[in-house]
Design goal:
The chain is α/β, with parallel strands linked by helices and 361 residues long. It is 25% helix and 32% strand. It starts with a strand and ends with a helix.
Length: 361
């Protein structure tokens, strides 16, 4: 096997074996605790520009199939695993993980002590890392890594460039694409919604001219404060006109729009089975998450109501506007793999549209 090196920003070096495409890559090192759904994770646009490390010891056991994509063109930069399966036996498997990463031009490394790597992340937080050939000089590679400036234009690089429609017989929903997961489209299809996906920087005037009955702010990568203030102005206008449902990055943008503050987390919430408590009822459900930023409780705006919180650290996981038909969740209410108990939030959104239309008439 071809040897590769994983080099961390703090100078730590791990030696491993080549996985996926050839070449060198640098990005922000993040992790996921997922035991299932690795194809869903790798194709999730929220990992744009990042190197994704799987803490689960063996990845690739069911191969890759045509149904579990969250995007057609994954934007994750690299993948790190402890071990991978070269000959998956699942009947739906079409190619193995190594072949998939090669096909999508994603550079990976296997044979890494992910427990030791996770310990470093827990101690020092997220940092830059490089996956490189073992033929290069370590000191030269480290100087290159330290000098690399990571892009903050993550949403712009993956949002659709042109609007497109997914017609159906139900409500007309405008979906603003900040790096959407295809699972959102699947859930809307189940509701027979007629969806128009628009670029992240589409103006409120353009969106409202399409006469939507609801608007969804999608998931996506990065720091919401890196986006132009025009995006917040668009959300501010839309929420006064039609029902809004915001997810993931959309939740953070919804919070910023209404006067909340955003802070970066030490480790972030990544993976499955984060316990989420509904504040009003005390009900606890488990959700899939992937975010490094959260809504700050300090100087929290009076216009918003906290509806959900993470049970372990009490971080804000859901919001509702007190005056407008608009709500948001930090977690994913939809998933290709794992639990689907939170899909009812799409029903809540449709019920909100029903009520808004009845009130308006």
């Amino acid at each position: 096997m071809t040897k590769r090196i994983l080099l961390l920003e703090d100078g730590t070096i791990f030696e491993g074996e080549a996985l996926g495409a050839r070449g060198n890559v640098t990005g922000e090192l993040v992790f996921t605790s997922r035991a299932v759904g690795y194809q869903e994770a790798i194709t999730n646009q929220s990992y744009q520009g990042q190197i994704l490390m799987f803490t689960y010891p063996v990845i690739g056991n069911v191969g890759i199939n045509s149904d579990d994509y969250e995007s057609i063109y994954p934007s994750v930069k690299g993948v790190i695993v402890s071990d991978t399966v070269r000959h998956p036996s699942h009947p739906d498997s079409q190619i193995n993980l190594d072949e998939f990463l090669c096909d999508k031009n994603i550079i990976g490394i296997s044979g890494i002590d992910t427990d030791a790597l996770m310990a470093i992340i827990e101690e020092k937080g997220t940092m830059k890392a490089s996956i490189v050939s073992d033929e290069d000089e370590p000191e030269h590679l480290k100087s290159q890594l330290v000098a690399t400036v990571l892009s903050t234009r993550q949403v712009e690089s993956i949002s659709t460039e042109k609007a497109y429609a997914l017609p159906n017989s139900g409500y007309k929903i405008i979906l603003i694409d900040f790096g959407l997961k295809h699972s959102i489209l699947r859930e809307l299809s189940k509701k027979e919604a007629s969806v128009i996906v628009v670029p992240f920087d589409t103006s409120a005037e353009t969106i409202l001219s399409m006469s939507p009955e609801g608007v969804i702010l999608s998931t996506g990568p990065g720091n919401p404060e890196d986006l132009d203030v025009k995006v917040l102005n668009t959300i501010a206008e839309i929420q006064t006109q039609v029902p809004v449902f915001a997810i993931g990055l959309g939740h953070q943008l919804f919070a910023l729009t209404n006067g909340a503050r955003i802070e970066k987390m030490a480790l972030g919430h990544r993976g499955f089975e984060h316990p989420i408590q509904e504040v009003a009822t005390g009900r606890v459900e488990f959700a899939q998450q992937n975010h490094a930023y959260q809504v700050d409780r300090e100087d929290f705006p009076e216009d918003l109501l906290v509806t959900h919180q993470e049970l372990n650290d009490e971080s804000i996981e859901g919001l509702r506007h007190k005056s407008y038909p608009a709500f948001s969740v930090q977690f994913y209410p939809e998933s290709l793999s794992g639990q689907s108990d939170l899909n009812y939030l799409y029903d809540d959104f449709m019920a909100m549209i029903d009520e808004f239309i009845e009130t308006k008439n």
